[in-house]
Amino acid sequence: AGSGAGADMRTEISTAAAFVTRLLRAAGGVGEEQLRCFRECLQEAMREHYKHHWFPLVPSKGSGYRCIRINHKMDPLIGKAAGMIGLSHERLFQLLPSELTLWVDPFEVSYRIGEDGSICVLYESPQPAGKAAKQLESRTSCKEEWRIGRSSPSKSYNMMTVSS
């Protein structure tokens, strides 16, 4: 009964942290021990950050607060975890996508790479019975607003082609 928010968000947080860790591993140049430490530090930072901002009864509430974002600025949670293993922000920008949005919400973790990329779901779990009716009234989460607000492709986005 008294499990509190901490226990409920474990799967979502570990899914999100493992995803960012996989991106780092794929980029190469970071040792396994460092990656393990990074993942643990990131999970800890997220747990601390989300502690009072986790609402399983209204999953979209606080969505913007829990959104992890790299967009010409490094997300502070990723930056903090990377600092623990000696990775600078400059190095992170080389290793991670320059545009990354990661939504960590109760029952769903999803991400988008690039401003106009598709949203991909990493983890989804059905909500406990009886909560479904509640979710419909406040469905416009941070993510939905992006989908609605970004339906037309951005005009200033020119693809550069490089011929060899």
From TrEMBL:
GO terms for cellular component: cytoplasm; nucleus. Residues 96-115 form the Anti-proliferative protein domain. GO terms for biological process: negative regulation of cell population proliferation. It comes from the Eukaryota. SMART domains: btg1. Pfam families: BTG. InterPro entries: Anti_prolifrtn, BTG, BTG-like_sf. Belongs to the BTG family. This is BTG1 protein. The lineage of its organism: Eukaryota, Metazoa, Chordata, Craniata, Vertebrata.
